[in-house]
Structure formats: C-alpha cells, structure tokens
Design brief:
Blueprint lengths: L3 E9 L5 E5 L2 E6 L5 E7 L3 E6 L4 E6 L6 E5 L4 E6 L5 E6 L2 E6 L4 E6 L6 E6 L5 E6 L4 E5 L14 E3 L6 E6 L7 E6 L3 E6 L4 E7 L4 E6 L5 E6 L3 E6 L16 E2 L4 E6 L5 E6 L3 E6 L5 E7 L4 E10 L26 H4 L13 H13 L5 H30 L1
Antiparallel strand pairs: 1-2, 1-28, 2-3, 4-5, 5-6, 6-7, 8-9, 9-10, 10-11, 12-13, 13-14, 14-15, 16-17, 17-18, 18-19, 20-21, 21-22, 22-23, 24-25, 25-26, 26-27
C-alpha cells in the first residue's frame, strides 16, 4: 500500500552491523563493532539485537541512520522478545527469563523453570502470554500478569514435554488464549498445540532436524526449515493424518546451508540467508527464485521483516523514548505503568467447544432451588401454555375459514 516501506534486517558475523534493505536497495547501515546474533522488533520502529559475546542488547531507531542505544545486562543474552505494546522485553539469560519495563528500566520478574539454557522466546499477539523453549526439550507458557506476584508462587500455565531434543523455534498464532502454538525441535518434529485446553493437535515429523518455523498469517501453511539446505511446506487446511516423513517433497533447495530466514509480511515470499552470505528470495507459493539478491562477505546470522509507515530519513535526531538503564535487581515496588497491567480479577479461563457444551449441560441440569430459578420456571410454564393457546386459536381460525 502507499506510504509503506517493507524493510529487512541483515546481520553478519564480520562486525559489519545491521543493514536496512528495501527490495534490492540498501537504505542504510547501522554500524556496531560487535558480533551480533539475534534480531527482534520493538514497536513502533525499533530493532533490537543481542551481542554474541558480551552482556549487551543494542537498540536501533529505524528512522535514524546512526541512532543506537545500548543496554547492559547481568549476563549474556541468548534470546530476546518485546511485548506487542513495546513497553516490556523478555530476555533469556542461561536458564532464566528476565522481564524489564523499558520506560523505567525496572526488573519486573525473573523466572527459572528450564533446567538448561533458554533457546527462544515469543509473546502472544495480545501480550497476555509469554512462551519459552529451552535445551531441556520443554516448552513453557506463562501468563504475564502473574509474573508480578511473588517469585516463589509463579509457575507456568502449561509445560509441554513432547519434544525429545532441544526446542529451536516457537510461533504463537493470533487469538490470545484461543490461539494455536507451533514449536519445532532438533528431534525432526513440529508440534501444534491448542492454548485454551493445553492439548496437542498435531505432530509432524520431517526427514531432518528443524531450526526455524515460518507460518502464514492465516495459519493455513507451515514452512519447516531444516538445519541443512531444505525447506518443507505443509498445508494446515488438510494436514497429513500419519507420518509422511519419507514421502515429503522438498519445497525449496538452497544452494548453501541455511543460516536464517523469514516470511515477508504479505506472505508472498520467503527470504533465506546462507552460510556463504547469499540473500535469496523465493516465492512462497511456487518455491521459485524471485529477482532479488544481496551478497555479504560472511554468513547471514538473522533476518527480520518489518513493515513501517514511511518516514523522512536523515532528519533531526530523535531521542530514544527509553533512556533509563536496565536495573539488575527488582525493587519490589512497581510503578504506575506496571500496575496498569495487573487485572483486578483473574482472567477468563477459555475452554474448548466440547468442554463448553458439557459445562452448559451441567449448568442447565443443576437446580440450586433459588427463588430466581423457580420464578423463571413458572414464567416458562406460562409462556408454554400461552403458546399452546395461540397455536389452537390459529388452527381453529384456519379450519373455520
């Protein structure tokens, strides 16, 4: 659409920094003398990157070519994810997850439920859930508002233990508690869960270990990216009923080992970065190579596709909205911004359709003998009698005429 710039972030191991691309045009280069590893988008127009060797997170303003902010952490970050509102970040450090409130820099919570290092983090699109995966093969689902309570009382809403090897990627669909959760692992499988019930809906087995999941916005197609050079495509409208790992056909065959990939916002193309520094664009429907190319001098570590409103570049410098450093210790007192997130009542617990029907049947069959129930039953009886009289009157009128 008019006035929208689709940009792609590119990381390299040769300390060249972060590139912002539009099509085949290189818009800008965000220089940083550090080896970076993971990219994450921070609304409305910021990009975060974790340092590979130092306890640092870098924050770039995409509207400014040289604007950068550094956050010092208590340990080396393994993964980072920002909340949809852009006010909170979740950072995986060793086997713990730390949550910061960016406007104040306050440490909101620290949870440690994984037995080994955390590999991936993702927020639900409504910001109520945080999902983490680790080297311990487990996937934990957290209710974010409960992280404001005492640390000893916080426990995951769900813990999925279906994978037999480390979790490599997580995708959370739209719908909050009613959404579907996608996970991949080095055990060659991809699992799909229903968050409202915590049940596993589907488990797909592939011929090779999976390190990245790409899911279309309407969740009709899943792309499984292997640790080597293949990409497999699975239709979720009519998924396979049994293990078809031996019969699956390769959708995309990259000439070099795949090190990063992303799906464009309009779901029309897949952009793949390789170990040789190639950046190749494939059609998401046919798998054919599209006219797009970019060559780097070293492996592409990560790619991020974002859509931003058009803006004037190289304008006057805009100060960062979050200048406060991140605190290492929680003060135990939350500011007003944090308190706004805490609901006055427990959130509504969503259930599956079958469980909902059972609850309705139990509620209808249950008679507590209250006055309201008695009055309603009397009124129902009166209405039933009146309905019979109306039917009789109408019948008599029709027969008489």
């Amino acid at each position: 659409s008019s006035g929208i710039n689709a940009e792609y972030g590119l990381l390299n191991e040769d300390k060249l920094g972060l590139y912002a691309l539009q099509g085949t045009n290189k818009l800008s280069k965000f220089k940083v003398h550090e080896t970076l590893q993971k990219l994450s988008f921070l609304p409305p127009h910021f990009v975060m990157a974790t340092s590979q060797k130092k306890p640092l997170i870098y924050l770039w303003n995409l509207s400014q070519d040289s604007s950068v902010q550094k956050y010092v952490l208590p340990g080396s970050p393994l993964c980072v994810a920002a909340s949809p509102c852009g006010s909170y970040i979740a950072v995986g450090i060793d086997n713990s997850i730390r949550f910061w409130h960016l406007p104040s820099g306050q440490l909101v919570s620290t949870v440690s439920s994984h037995y080994q290092k955390v590999t991936c983090l993702v927020w639900s699109h409504d910001g109520r859930l945080v999902v983490s995966g680790g080297y311990d093969n487990n996937v934990n689902v957290w209710e974010f508002h409960k992280l404001f309570k005492e640390q000893s009382t916080v426990s995951p809403l769900y813990t999925f233990t279906n994978h037999s090897m480390p979790v490599t990627d997580i995708y959370c669909g739209f719908g909050g508690f009613k959404s579907r959760l996608f996970t991949s692992s080095l055990d060659n499988t991809c699992n799909i869960y229903e968050l409202c019930s915590g049940k596993i809906l589907l488990s797909l087995e592939f011929p090779a270990p999976i390190f990245k999941l790409l899911v279309s916005r309407c969740e009709s197609v899943l792309y499984a990216v292997t640790v080597s050079t293949e990409v497999y495509k699975v239709s979720l409208i009519s998924p396979p009923e049994k293990d078809l790992s031996k019969q699956m056909k390769v959708f995309i065959k990259c000439p070099n080992k795949i090190t990063s990939c992303c799906l464009t916002d309009e779901d029309s193309a897949i952009i793949i970065g390789s170990s040789q520094g190639d950046l190749i664009k494939y059609s998401a429907s046919t798998g054919q190579v599209l006219p797009f190319s970019f060559k780097s001098r070293s492996p592409v570590d990560d790619i991020l596709s974002v859509t931003l409103p058009s803006y004037k570049r190289n304008d006057k410098p805009v100060p960062f909205p979050y200048p406060q450093p991140l605190k290492r210790v929680s003060t135990g007192v939350l500011d007003e911004c944090s308190l706004l997130l805490k609901p006055k009542h427990e959130p509504i617990q969503f259930v599956s359709d079958s469980d909902f029907l059972d609850l309705v049947k139990e509620a209808v069959a249950e008679d507590k003998g209250s006055d309201n129930v008695t009055e309603l039953k009397d009124k129902v009886g009166e209405l039933s009698a009146l309905s019979e009289q109306l039917v009789k009157f109408a019948t008599d009128q029709l027969i008489g005429s």
